[in-house]
């Protein structure tokens, strides 16, 4: 049968859960604040504009903002010159990221690592089959930028860009979108381990091995290095998570 | 059918297909040329008033961009002018870029071009920018995954905008690969045997064969043609070639 069963069809076309949307919007804006994409003191667009841009109802946005106020990530001032403002003093960045990490269970992080490694491994394999040398110009530049980066946030941002560029070199729009989606989930947290120079050095070595394997058109080796790279990165996060859990 | 007759039929289908690819992309280039002309005129006019252009001035392009996206719906999904960094006096960089969305609406693309917050703020190394800047000629980029503007597998047609002989940016239009396939697929399928379009680097843009799909790479097609392993048919002045297998004797 080609047609989906009627129950499956109803599930496909059912409206998205409102509660999930509140959470999704709060997470998106919260991650942007934690990562520093939205900076301390910045005023968010008006509620109806922002709701329109995000494609959610105004009530949904309001509930998301309420959740962010509770987390101390935004503050709302009433009256003239009022509005919603980002609260993200730079000296509390590490603390906010750690809070964010502690909100994940170890099991969630392990599952995320499995998913991410499957995607990154698939990307590496296809890139090794399909990329030509000019396709690797952008990732090679990012590799060098990553090696030179000192600040953990910059390291995480450039690491993210390198992996998006490899997904594009794999010629897959879907895998590129999935890579970007996974980064919005875990990307900000990856700057925690990148504060450690040894972790930064390991990631740099793996990037070089990965680009070597892709450049040598060796799909199996590329996939193996990419999977190890993701699992290694998330293992460091899990170690931090376990330490944080004991301390609290 | 004799070998000569069958070769003639193949040749006619090939001629039709390359003509169709050329006609279709020349239509898109005609839109790019209009955007190029209007951008050049706008920037030159403002310079004539003795001040530098600002991002708000580029709003003057919007009626044209909206009209072209409406006319070429289903073929052109994004169009605009990409300013050379430093051209505008109020912002370091700018894309006046409009896109047709899945719901049919035409909206501007809002991109974070602040290097302090975005890892993607420098667009000057993308082929659609670098090729017209470096060659001074119009260009076809892709197919490539456009993770900057649309997240779609795309072709981008672009032309350099020169104001008083100085490079000021590029005018460009995006064709999503699925729309390109819709447009050229039937002509490719009328060719007997495997036939596919490749860009100058050998990347397949559309194909009639499951063995050589869009996105795959034919390494060094010119050398392969010289060895007689495949035949390359140019698509007029468009930098894509149709690849067919040579018809072998009985």
From TrEMBL, chain A:
PROSITE patterns: HTH_GNTR (PS50949)
Domain HTH gntR-type span(s) in chain numbering: 19-89
Entry-linked Pfam families: FCD, GntR
SUPFAM superfamilies: GntR ligand-binding domain-like, Winged helix' DNA-binding domain
Record keywords, A-Z: DNA-binding, Transcription, Transcription regulation
KW Glycoprotein (keyword) present: no
PANTHER family: GLUCONATE OPERON TRANSCRIPTIONAL REPRESSOR, TRANSCRIPTIONAL REGULATOR, GNTR FAMILY
Protein name per the record: FadR/GntR family transcriptional regulator
């Amino acid at each position: 049968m080609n047609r989906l069963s009627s129950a499956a069809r109803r599930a496909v076309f059912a409206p998205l859960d409102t509660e999930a949307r509140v959470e999704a919007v709060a997470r998106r804006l919260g991650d942007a604040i934690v990562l520093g994409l939205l900076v301390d003191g910045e005023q968010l667009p008006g509620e109806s504009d922002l709701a329109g841009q995000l494609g959610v109802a105004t009530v949904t946005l309001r509930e998301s903002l309420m959740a962010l106020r509770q987390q101390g990530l935004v503050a709302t001032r009433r009256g003239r010159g009022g509005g919603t403002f980002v609260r993200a003093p730079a000296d509390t960045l590490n603390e906010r990221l750690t809070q964010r990490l502690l909100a994940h269970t170890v099991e969630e992080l392990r599952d995320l690592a499995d998913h991410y490694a499957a995607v990154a491994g698939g990307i590496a394999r296809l890139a090794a089959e399909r990329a030509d040398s000019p396709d690797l110009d952008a990732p090679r530049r990012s590799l060098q930028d990553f090696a030179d980066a000192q600040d953990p946030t910059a390291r995480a941002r450039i690491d993210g860009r390198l992996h998006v560029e490899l997904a594009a070199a794999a010629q897959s729009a879907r895998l590129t979108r999935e890579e970007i989606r996974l980064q919005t989930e875990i990307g900000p947290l990856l700057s925690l381990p990148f504060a450690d120079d040894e972790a930064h050095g390991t990631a740099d070595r793996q990037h070089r091995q990965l680009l070597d394997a892709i450049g040598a058109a060796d799909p199996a080796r590329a996939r193996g290095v990419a999977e190890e790279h993701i699992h290694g990165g998330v293992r460091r996060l899990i170690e931090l998570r376990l330490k944080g859990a004991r301390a609290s | 059918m004799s070998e000569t007759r069958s070769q003639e039929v193949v040749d006619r289908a090939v001629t039709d297909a390359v003509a169709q690819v050329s006609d279709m992309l020349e239509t898109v280039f005609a839109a790019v040329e209009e955007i190029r002309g209007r951008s050049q005129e706008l920037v030159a006019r403002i310079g004539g008033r003795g001040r530098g252009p600002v991002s708000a001035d580029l709003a003057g392009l919007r009626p044209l961009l909206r009209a072209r996206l409406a006319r070429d719906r289903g073929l052109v999904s994004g169009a605009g002018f990409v300013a050379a960094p430093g051209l505008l006096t109020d912002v370091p960089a700018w894309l006046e870029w409009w896109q047709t969305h899945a719901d049919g609406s035409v909206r501007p693309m809002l991109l974070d071009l602040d290097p302090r917050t975005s890892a993607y703020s420098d667009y000057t190394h993308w082929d659609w920018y670098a090729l017209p800047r470096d060659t001074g000629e119009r260009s076809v980029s892709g197919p490539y995954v456009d993770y900057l503007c649309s997240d779609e597998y795309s072709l981008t047609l672009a032309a350099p905008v020169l104001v008083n002989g100085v490079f000021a940016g590029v005018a460009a239009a995006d064709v999503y690969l699925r729309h390109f396939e819709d447009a050229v697929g039937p002509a490719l399928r009328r060719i007997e045997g495997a036939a596919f379009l490749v860009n100058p680097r050998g990347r397949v843009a559309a194909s009639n064969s499951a063995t050589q799909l869009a996105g795959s790479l034919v390494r060094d097609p010119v050398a392969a043609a010289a060895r007689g392993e495949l035949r390359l048919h140019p698509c007029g002045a468009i930098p894509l070639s149709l690849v067919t297998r040579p018809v072998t004797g009985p």
